[in-house]
Specification:
Length: about 750
DNA sequence: ACATGTTCCCTTTTT
DNA sequence: GGGAACATGT
């Protein structure tokens, strides 16, 4: 282990480099964050004012950690509070707050989350009269998101090369969506960056002009003299443009690892790193290859997986932490067994003194978390789900925040309609629809329509209820200015009847919701403690940006459950990677796309390299997906692992390779031996079936014909085809086929016969 | 208006 | 298996 203060020569070189752009190409566990923190500390020691330094991280959690580490290194010598440290989104929100009018927003603008976006888009599509089966809000928003990630506005969307007629629909929807956002005095996540980039684009003025010096955005482009960006491989084009513009006057240092680029679907561009030298004249490159995190067995396995990718810069990590334990590879009967085995193994490890916080379980998709959580809890262990349904996503929390948001700024229809009938106050669907129609007709906001319920054609009873709601909100708004934030929150929960609703419901769920509101209260108080003069605007902004991250403060030491994506940047003594099966990891959706498959491989690399000492990979022979049991074949990534670095439990897996099947080949495999299974955890009774050879796994297949990816079949309607995936079982089993013309079709298994 | 029943689609991954 | 969107009954 490297001590916190020491640096190796390569790290030192990256810290000391001055005078031009620098790219630090650093593998997993080589001390990237350490280089950044030391660099910032060194700059401060050299006399650079803290407010001239900007550090961009990937998550809010990372930002927080970085701040703490810098504080430790500076030992109170500098005003580190004035440093700008944050995610792209939090930094941009901070910049946008200086000039929201520049993009047509008020200073109370709301930040829309995914569900707000969808409800807005649903309206847009209805307005456009677009067939709703063809264009879902989610799908159209996906295109718009992509455009925003590239820094494109509706008129520039040709660059995305979407085919007609989709392109036209998306372009119109995009235009209208932005109009509606502006009317609601809101922006979405993508806008946060693009708005700021727009402001910065317009801020290019002659430097000697008087006017230019006064423009806050012009000052912004020259403010920073030193900019560092972590996780640069996950930067998308708008973010890269932001970096370029914000560092016009600055020395730029970016840190990244092309092998850990796992956000391609969000517009991140692996080439970003490769092109860095082209974009920035005289860029130096420093490589870090000594790993301080993992033992050699773990590194060898990780390397074996990532080595298969083409088009990487290529580096070979080494470590002097010794060979370590072999990587465990366990095959179990189904996902319950998988969870149970992991829970038992963790239990034993904790008994032996491992800190629960140093243990993590990874899964590919959120859907897999439930079973794992179940089994871990059943073992009496406390665990924390990182990400997942975040605190701020909970309905009661969102509702309460929506109340606050409307008090501040009533033009946001999405927030008004969220709270108008929660708790139920007799303003039902019909009334709401009438009000919305009336608002749309007059081009008013929903709130404005509420002010004059008769004009919307409401009957007396309905109008009275609407009035009562409006009066209540107006009273709250009067109180708002006199009350501190925490008391305001309590008033809202009380006056709105929300508390009453939960108290009178004595279900366990309502109880939990009440507790969540209590936690929210605590959260607000914490916020006020940190920033005594913090405003409602600032609080709401913080909350929408922190979004995915759980609230800190649960002091219990718990083991960590998370998706592989959430695991990036973290490290643990003991790591379990679950679902190492084809169609789970790698995910079924990437199987026929080589580009996405490479990203999947990088994702696997990220997963494996999180482990310091103990790494266990598990797979299940059967797994329930969509409530149907599916039969799994071992992940192709398992087949890449060097034999001498792993220890298998259960019988020898049928290694994937390309289109690796189960069934036929399994006949040649040696039979499993009890001994292997027992040697691993002989003091623990676990209820697994390591002896089930894959052939004997019960399936509901009609004639027991083994189906495997790559299998050739004959269909009556489409001719011969290759199986690239399947779902369901028994008579409901469906096959995904690639036809001879490379088209992909899904057909019922009973319509095909093996070739 | 609301409570209860029914169907359908779904699942990558997140700031 | 489960949540959301629709449908039907009181």
């Amino acid at each position: 282990m490297q001590t916190p203060m020491s640096l190796n020569p390569a790290q030192q070189a990256a810290v000391d480099h001055r005078g031009g752009p620098l790219l630090v190409l650093a593998g997993a566990g080589t001390g990237k964050t350490r280089v950044i923190t030391h660099r910032v500390a060194a700059l401060l020691d050299e006399g650079v004012p803290p407010w001239r330094i900007l550090a961009v991280t990937f998550t809010n959690k990372a930002a927080k950690e970085m701040r703490e580490r810098i504080d430790v290194l500076c030992e109170g010598r500098h005003e580190t509070k004035e440093l700008w440290v944050g995610t792209f989104h939090s930094i941009c929100a901070r910049i946008l707050r200086r000039n929201p009018e520049g993009v047509g927003l008020s200073s109370h603008y709301a930040i829309y989350d995914t569900s707000d976006q969808r409800s807005l888009m649903k309206q847009v599509l209805a307005d456009l009269g677009v067939p709703d089966r063809l264009y879902t809000p989610k799908g159209v928003l996906g295109h718009i998101d992509r455009a925003k990630n590239q820094g494109l506005r509706p008129s520039e969307m040709d660059a995305l090369q979407i085919l007609e007629p989709v392109a036209t629909v998306v372009r119109n929807a995009y235009t209208r969506y932005q109009d509606k956002l502006k009317a609601a005095d809101a922006c979405d996540f993508g806008d946060l960056i693009l708005h700021v980039v727009t402001l910065l684009r317009n801020a290019v003025k002659p430097s000697d002009s008087q006017l230019g010096d006064l423009d806050p955005m012009v000052r912004m482009t020259t403010r920073f003299t030193h900019v560092v960006v972590d996780e640069f491989q996950d930067t998308n084009p708008v973010q890269a443009e932001f970096v370029d513009r914000i560092s016009r006057n600055a020395e730029l240092c970016v840190v990244g690892d092309d092998d850990q680029s796992i956000y391609g679907w969000r517009g991140a561009d692996v080439d970003q790193i490769l092109r860095f030298a082209d974009r920035h004249d005289g860029a130096e490159v420093v490589r870090l290859e000594q790993n301080y995190r993992s033992t050699m067995n773990i590194l060898e396995c990780s390397d074996a997986v990532i080595r298969k990718n083409a088009g990487r810069l290529g580096k070979k990590l080494w470590s002097d932490l010794g060979q370590g334990d072999p990587v465990q590879l366990v095959r179990l009967g189904d996902e319950r067994d998988e969870g149970r085995l992991i829970a038992q193994d963790i239990y034993a490890a904790i008994e032996n003194g491992t800190d629960p916080e140093e243990i993590a379980v990874f899964y590919r998709t959120h859907a897999m978390s439930r079973v794992l959580e179940d089994e871990v809890r059943r073992m009496g262990l406390s665990c924390r789900i990182v990400g997942g349904v975040a605190f701020y996503e909970r309905q009661e929390v969102k509702d309460t925040l929506a109340y606050l948001s409307v008090l501040r700024n009533s033009s946001s229809d999405a927030h008004v309609s969220r709270i108008i009938n929660r708790p139920a106050r007799g303003i039902g669907n019909t009334t709401q629809t009438r009000l919305a129609d009336a608002a749309a007709k007059d081009g008013k906001s929903l709130w404005e329509a509420l002010l004059d319920p008769e004009a919307a054609g409401l009957k007396k009873a309905a109008a009275r209820k609407v009035r009562a709601f409006v009066t209540m909100m107006q009273n709250l708004r009067d109180e708002m200015h006199e009350l501190p934030l925490d008391e305001l929150l309590a008033r809202v929960v009380e006056v709105s009847g929300y508390r009453e609703m939960l108290v009178s419901d004595d279900s366990e769920e309502a109880q939990a919701r009440l507790e969540n509101l209590q936690e929210l209260q605590g959260n607000v108080m914490e916020f006020l403690q940190e920033r005594p003069d913090g405003t409602l605007d600032e609080y709401l902004e913080l909350v929408s940006l922190v979004g995915g991250e759980r609230s800190e403060g649960d002091a219990t030491r718990a083991i960590n459950l998370m998706t592989v994506h959430s695991a990036k940047g973290l490290e643990f003594e003991r790591v379990y990677v679950t679902g190492m099966e084809e169609r789970v990891f790698p995910h079924a959706r990437v199987l026929d796309d080589p580009v996405q498959m490479e990203e999947e491989r990088r994702l696997a690399y990220v997963a494996l390299t999180r482990a310091k000492r103990h790494l266990t990979l598990t797979m299940a022979a059967r797994r329930r997906i969509y409530g149907q049991t599916q039969v799994g074949t071992p992940s192709r990534f398992l087949g890449d692992l060097p034999r001498e670095c792993i220890h298998r439990v259960g019988d020898e897996p049928a290694y994937g390779g390309h289109g690796g099947g189960y069934g036929r080949r399994s006949a040649h495999r040696p039979q499993p031996t009890r001994k292997q299974a027992e040697s691993w955890q002989n003091d623990i009774e676990y209820d697994v079936d390591p002896d089930i050879p894959f052939d004997d796994i019960p399936t509901d297949e009609p004639e027991g014909v083994p189906i495997y990816v790559g299998m050739l079949v004959r269909t009556r309607t489409f001719g011969d085809a290759e199986v690239i995936g399947w779902s369901g079982s028994g008579t409901k089993m469906k096959l995904q086929l690639r036809l001879s013309n490379r088209e992909v079709k899904t057909v019922l298994a009973s319509f095909v016969e093996p070739l």
